[in-house]
Amino acid sequence: MLYVSLACRLTLVAVMALAAVSKLRSPGVFAASLEGFDFIPARLRSPLAVLVPAAELLIALVLAVPATVTAGFAIATLFCCGLTAVPVLVLARGKKVTCACFGASETPMGGWHIARNSVLLATAGLGTLVALRLGDGVPAHAPGIALAVVAAGVLTTLIVFVDDIAALFQSPVPAGDLGR
């Protein structure tokens, strides 16, 4: 279970840090993307453009510190509940809103985003449960650590590139429609 916790922890640290950096690198892109969310009051969009990447960095930091891992997982679980609710609300309202979670994107939110955020939520929830059960003092071994690192790398890649992966499963645009 130690290695499951480590894989969850590494995945969340990487995903949250990458998401925050992409938003902070182009703050206008993320702020502009929030305009499409009509369920978020206009007065809250500017503060959210700052608070969301700050929360992502905080989660990554709290999970990176061994003494605060359990709290980090709990905070990540709550945060991921909100992240999962956003594309659900967008789809329920029938809106076409692009996701700027990892930088500018042309892909409107859809089922892939719900799946991605659900995987993040499950990762945070599983990490929380394991961290609460494990406590401190469990010895780690190199092969288990290596496996956890590889698993976290694969999961992080799948999460970050969900728009690109989804595009592989979409119907190609017919050649005659390219110029329209």
Walkthrough of the structure:
Helix content is 71%, strand content 0%. The protein is globular, with a radius of gyration of 18 Å. The chain has one domain (2-166). The protein starts with a helix and ends in a 12-residue tail after the last helix. The protein has helices spanning 2-25, 27-33, 42-64, 69-92, 111-134, 142-160, 162-168. The relative contact order is 0.18. Pfam families: MauE. It comes from Streptomyces cuspidosporus.
The first-to-last residue Cα distance is 53 Å
Number of folding domains?
Answer: 1
Strand content: under 5%
For the largest beta-sheet, the strand count, sense and barrel status come to:
none
* Poorly predicted runs: none
Helix proportion range? over 70%
Query: Cα-atom Rg, whole angstroms?
Result: 18 Å
Total helical segments: 7
H/E order of the elements?
HHHHHHH
Mean pLDDT: 88
Count the strands?
0
By secondary-structure content and strand pairing, the structural class works out as: mainly alpha
The geometry reads as: globular
Secondary structure layout plus pairing:
Blueprint: H1 2-25, H2 27-33, H3 42-64, H4 69-92, H5 111-134, H6 142-160, H7 162-168
List keywords for this structure.
single chain, 180 residues, mainly alpha, 0% strand
In short:
The chain is mostly helical and 180 residues long. It is built from 7 helices and no strands. It comes from Streptomyces cuspidosporus.
